[in-house]
Design brief:
heterodimer, A: alpha/beta, Rossmann fold, Alpha-Beta Plaits, 10 helices
């Protein structure tokens, strides 16, 4: 059984289509990054998973049930994009309150430890920094021991150091066999912390696989050289080439197989190749290529 | 849900605005007013002003407590995302508004009891046991329309608007309902406004009880009618505030 199954889900706000026929299955136990630019439909999808928004059409199942039922059963925990705490309550009080709402919660001390809050447990929420507040919100999300954890741009308010420990904590939670879906527009985060990256743009899945697969599937490498006044005709027919771009007197050839492309460039063309450079594509290139407005 | 109620009470007792407006104000004003006029006697009923003022200030405190503990905290929770935090837990939606209602009613008790205590200790007010229970009980149950009003404000308005509206509503109801000055000394236009307000019905039930009379039927029906009307409005507003698009 899948933890999450979207089938043909569309969400419209008036004329604006936020999610456009999304179909996506996420198996139990996986850690999936929803990667996409702002406005791609990531938050809308997460809010629909939680029953906070209703799809305009299509169907969503969470562990085989509708989102409302999954929430009622305590199957889902989430850290939404914004949210503050009750200012007069201490960290321990807030976390304990939320955890007691779930049928099978984690022990309080374990939740505090997993969110690095043991030393802050007695502090009131109005005395916390932004990064500390995020940690409490993470604690609230895992307090009930949910089988599915949804994180919507969880590191937005964090500095580099707290980001690192946040992802360590997230992986520790994932290691207990739980399913995790997080939305981010940071490529590095998706690359380092997930075992599957789903790239979303304009409300649709535009790529789906491991970070390595997505890198190699798009463009792969870039071979560029000074073309001068010579014609670029025929370059797109070289082996492995997926695209040819010309900027000023330089041409850049996108290729999945740079060795074959370069060999053919010297042997099978009469071009005078000067100043050759080969770049390995990174996820950034892949991401930009995938999410570019068509 | 018990734990939710405990959490709601705990946070309000730590809230300075609640403690000042609700717990300190009514007692301080009672002490002030009863020192000035406490020994005067009402001509119509023969009840000492120290007793009438006790009812008025207890009623004001309860009114303030019920609106202050509902409107603004609820508006803030909606805007800050705390409501959504609760909506994604197994806590059912009806439990939120029910807990808010119960918590507000509990938070009314400190002002009722403290004003009563101040009256007994400083003005040596004494009432038959039955009247004490009747008075506290009536003033306690009678806050339902005001809690409903507070929850309606909190459901419909963002916190920075809910704050002044709740304040104006609270002082308006207290002032025009005759809690600060007797309705009898008001000009006739204000007097007729006072008579249709729930705050007047509410306090007059208390004044009747301490005079040894049964509450007037019109006041009881008035407060019950307001409770039903504002209660229905609160439920509608709550549904609107928590609707899932």
């Amino acid at each position: 059984m899948n933890a999450i199954a979207f089938s043909g889900v569309t969400k419209k706000y008036g004329d604006v289509v936020a999610v456009d026929g999304l179909t996506l299955d996420i198996p139990i136990g996986s850690t999936v990054a929803l990667l996409g630019p702002n406005g791609a439909g990531k938050s809308t999808s997460i809010n629909m998973l939680l029953g906070l928004l209703r799809p305009t059409s299509g169907d969503i199942k969470v562990f085989g049930n509708g989102p409302d039922q999954a929430v009622t059963r305590g199957d889902i925990g989430a850290m939404l994009q914004e949210g503050s705490l009750i200012p007069e309550l201490t960290v321990r009080e807030s976390v304990d309150f939320i955890r007691r709402l779930y049928p099978d919660p984690l022990p309080l001390d374990e939740v505090l430890r997993m969110a690095d809050l043991t030393d802050l447990a007695g502090r009131r929420a109005d005395k916390l920094s932004g990064g500390q507040t995020q940690r409490v919100r993470f604690a609230l999300a895992i307090a009930g021991g949910p089988k599915l954890l949804l994180l919507d741009e969880p590191t937005a308010a964090m500095d580099v150091e707290s980001r690192r420990s946040f992802w360590d904590n997230m992986r520790a939670y994932a290691a207990q066999g739980r399913t995790i879906v997080f939305a981010t527009h940071y490529l590095e985060e998706a690359d380092e912390n997930s075992d599957r990256v789903v790239v979303i743009a304009r409300g649709q899945v535009v790529a789906d696989g491991t970070a390595a697969e997505i890198k190699s599937g798009v463009a792969g490498h870039a071979v560029s050289f000074r073309l001068g006044s010579q014609s670029a005709a025929g370059l797109d027919a070289l082996p492995g080439v997926s695209a040819v771009e010309i900027q000023a007197d330089r041409v850049t050839v996108r290729t999945g197989d740079p060795d074959a492309t370069v060999e053919a460039l010297y042997r099978k063309t009469t071009l005078d190749v000067r100043d050759l450079q080969i770049h390995g594509a990174d996820l950034e290139d892949a991401f930009l290529a995938l999410t570019k407005e068509s | 849900m018990q734990h939710y109620l405990k959490i709601e009470l705990l946070r309000m007792f730590r809230n300075k605005r609640y403690v000042i407006f609700v717990v300190v104000f009514p007692v301080v004003f009672y002490l002030l007013y009863s020192n000035l006029w406490g020994s005067e006697v009402d001509q119509a009923t023969g009840v000492k002003a120290s007793v009438i003022l006790m009812v008025s200030m207890a009623a004001y405190g309860a009114l303030a407590a019920s609106i202050m503990s509902s409107a603004v905290p609820w508006a803030q929770e909606r805007q800050s995302g705390w409501l959504r935090q609760l909506q994604i837990t197994p806590l059912p939606g009806w439990a939120i508004i029910t807990t808010k209602l119960i918590a507000s009613m509990v938070l009314v008790l400190p002002s009722l009891l403290l004003v009563g205590l101040a009256a007994v200790l400083t003005q040596h007010v004494s009432l038959p046991v039955g009247e004490w229970f009747g008075l506290i009980g009536a003033l306690w149950i009678g806050v339902i329309p005001f809690v409903a009003l507070g929850l309606t404000i909190g459901s419909l308005l963002p916190p920075d608007t809910a704050q002044p509206v709740a304040m104006i509503g609270m002082f308006g109801l207290a002032l025009l309902g005759g809690l600060w000055f007797p309705v009898d000394i008001m000009p006739s236009a204000m007097k007729s406004i006072a008579h249709v307000l729930p705050s007047y019905d509410y306090a007059s039930i208390g004044w009747n009880i301490v005079a040894g009379d049964a509450p007037e039927t019109s006041a009881v029906l008035g407060i019950a009618g307001w409770a039903v009307a504002l209660g229905a409005l609160a439920v509608l507003a709550y549904r609107r505030a928590t609707v899932r698009a």
